[in-house]
Amino acid sequence: PDGAARAVDVLVIGAGQAGLSTAYHLQRRGFAPWTAPPPDGGGTPGSYAVLDAEEGPGGAWRHRWRSLRMSTVNGISELPGLPTPDVDPCEPSSEFITRYFADYEDQLALAIVRPVRVARVEREDDDPRGRLRVVSSAGDWSARAVVNATGTWTKPFWPIYPGQDTFAGRQLHVADYVAAEELRDRHVAVVGGGISAVQLLDEISQVTTTSWFTRREPVWREAPFDARAGHDAVAMVEERVARGLPPQSVVSVTGLVWTPSLRRAAARGALDRRPMFTEIVPEGVRQADGTVLPTDVILWATGFRAALDHLAPLRLRGHGGGIRMDGTRVADEPRVHLVGYGPSSSTIGANRAGRAAVTQLVALLGGAGA
Ligand code: FAD
What we know:
It is a single chain. The protein is of the alpha/beta class. The protein is built from 7 helices and 19 strands. Helices cover 23% and strands 21% of the residues. The longest helix is centred in the last third of the chain and has 19 residues. It is globular, with a radius of gyration of 22 Å. Bound molecules: flavin-adenine dinucleotide. Flavin-adenine dinucleotide (FAD) binds next to helix 1 and helix 7.
């Protein structure tokens, strides 16, 4: 970098579903894709760019475990403007989505710059209509508005339990999980009440013994997950973030859905839930009844938090511990939108959020290149 900040109207951080949807709508509304200016300084600087920390397309899907196949995901919404190609249900979602996103970026000629990790976002001055400075691993950028689309994958949540450091076995988070085979013949304690916990219990219990610990009794829904249930879940999370509370996990709102595979796991006893253990000891976990369960591996299926550390200099968090939102817009900082956050942290929600954010940014900035 030459030291001078590269200027754009809108800088998008993250190129998962949410960032790509935002880029699509920016381009549709006339924001020109940024390209590196030629050495003679001519050419058009462009008015939007997407910075993404990954080595290639796919967002967090690049890192999902291989057994998460197109038949076992919850349903992936297509990106705006390009239908999803035919899906082979057996293909790992990591491969399918990476290919689909790569085609998408190419065909729409989106301005994605990678690998670039954003370290922090700051206000350039006290002017509430002034520019934002984005400090990255590839130099500084200056933008009139920032759309943050960094997802949650890079911020796995590990709860803290007494004795955790003394454990002689292996501890891993779902974000580190590769395949059941690496856990063969070792007793695995799975912690957490979400979809990843039950899906991984199902597959790990086929190669070794497992036990399942959750803080609360898991809530199973008998009815299939339909549009109505989805709508209600989103509305509940939306209401929380509008009040400045941290978003809670969508499963805590929707409940777990029985699939034929999970019913077979239940029949094997793999979904017999135990109350949360009270302590970790070198050889295992101390259960609620005081007995020690010998354990080789603790798998934390305890979810993720929004990856927002780089926004800390903007001081967006309020008394509720979360960021008060007005749709995708940060209520107290109209230059910053969060897409794929809280109520929009699904592929369908991310699509809608990208569109909503761009509509508001056009109004804020007075159109592209203004
Ligand atoms: P991501 O895909 O996480 O993309 C964020 C991007 O931002 C990444 O490329 C990342 O590298 C980049 N980034 C992060 N920090 C920085 C930084 N500081 N600087 C630059 N770049 C950065 N949703 C569904 O709708 N259907 C499903 O079937 C489904 N299955 C899921 C399965 C699992 C195991 C998990 C954890 C989630 C699942 N979800 C599913 C929810 C899912 O997270 C979202 O649907 C979607 O992947 C989120 O897209 P995103 O664009 O918000 O984030």
